[in-house]
Amino acid sequence: MRIRLDNLPKEYQKKLCERTLTQETIYSLTFSISQKYRKQKQLLIRVAILLVILTLVMAAASFISPAAARGNRIVILGSCAVALILELLIIAGIYYIAVTRVPRQFSRCLAKGYPELTSFYSYEAILSGQLEASGQSRQLPFSLYIEDVFHLDDSHDVIVSGFAHGLITRNQSVYIIDPKDPAKGKYAAIVTQIETGPGQPAQQAADCPSALRLQNGQDFPICPGMYLYRDNF
């Protein structure tokens, strides 16, 4: 007999690790995983309650039966208690192995490809139902993996480029982090200009290649491989 467990599709695992999904897709995927997890959890809770009730009913029936009067009731109670504990352990094992399997796979892949988004789409957020409670109208967070940095000769500003996930608007503040050196903490800067293509200035950028000008960016050790993000929705 072969037991089949749900898995996050390999295509999504690969795309998450390689940063090739848009914010819309990530949010929709997380929302879907959270919904499915909570439905499976509710079903497992119902099964657990039913098993406990059946075990207690069987224990009560065994305890008041004529055979129990002739036997050792302590042994009977002990056997029922062991059976109940084993059932609860099996339920806990199913919860970890099967019910939380996809959320854990998603969280691992997200941490590899989008470490700056782990606070938004965290394992805890998926399990708590926080994403479902917020609804699909939630504004997506912004993040950008810095691919190139350009220093300006006549200004302390810098220009960073990469793919903008989520929405960023001119004059908004962003945080800058280095995932390779968390001890550095995070820096804050203002996005004063946005370009979505060569010679294409824009007021906003969303889910597209972008170049952002950061006010006084040369005051910070900004380099490729770092991330920009906004921590509000």
Structural overview:
This protein has 233 residues and is an alpha+beta fold. 45% of the residues lie in helices and 21% in strands. It has a six-stranded antiparallel barrel with strand order 1-3-6-5-4-7. It starts with 9 loop residues before the first helix and ends with a strand.
Computed Rg: 26 Å
For the record, give the distance between the C-alpha atoms at the N and C termini, rounded to a whole number: 47 Å
- Widest sheet, order of strands: 1-3-6-5-4-7
**Strand content range:** 15-25%
Mean pLDDT: 83
Proportion in helices: 40-55%
Supply the number of helical segments: 7
Largest sheet: 6 strands, antiparallel, barrel
What are the secondary-structure elements, in order, as H or E?
HHHHHHHEEEEEEE
Sheet/helix structural class:
alpha+beta
Report the uncertain regions: none
The 3D shape can be described as: elongated
Number of strands: 7
Task: Furnish the topology, listing elements before pairings.
Layout lengths: L9 H8 L5 H42 L1 H5 L2 H27 L1 H13 L9 H6 L1 H5 L8 E3 L2 E4 L6 E12 L3 E5 L8 E10 L8 E11 L12 E3 L4
Antiparallel strand pairs: 1-3, 1-7, 2-3, 3-6, 4-5, 4-7, 5-6
Helix pairs in contact: 1-5, 2-4
What are the main properties of this structure?
233 residues; alpha+beta; 7 strands
Describe the structure concisely.
The chain is 45% helix and 21% strand. It has helices spanning 10-17, 23-64, 66-70, 73-99, 101-113, 123-128, 130-134; strands at 143-145, 148-151, 158-169, 173-177, 186-195, 204-214, 227-229.
